[in-house]
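To: structure desk
From: M.T.
Subject: fold request, one chain
Message: Could you run this one when you get a chance? Sequence is below, nothing fancy, just the single chain.
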Amino acid sequence: MSDAVSGMAEPDQLLDVAVDDLGIVRLTWVRGLRITEELANHAMTLVDRVNGSHERPLLVDMTGTAALTRPARVTFTRRCSASRIALLGQSPVDRVIANFALGVSSVPVPTRFFTSEPSAVAWLRHDDTGA
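Reply: Done. Structure tokens follow.
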């Protein structure tokens, strides 16, 4: 088991947050990660820091996430500077984790799960009035 998966790594080694050329904030988690409240808070802080005073769409690559703790789910229900959120995964496990998180928690902005990155990006770039 790697340090990143075992929880021995620093939070910044477990995720990456950056704005792409389209103005979409991309949050990518290390595969095999158990996302805890601490990591969820850290991710939201980084997204807010990258966005500054702007709201931008957020693409979360959660491919291969091992688990999402209950406190992390609660953390993700708080409003941050994301205008809408696309969760990107590949496996049935990714879908189950995303659906469970979305089904039991009230998210503050439009949020959807995708298995296709182009579909997720197209949805994120669409304005809220036509979604």
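Reply (cont.): Strands lie at 15-19, 25-29, 34-35, 56-61, 67-68, 82-88, 111-114. Let me know if you need anything else for the meeting.
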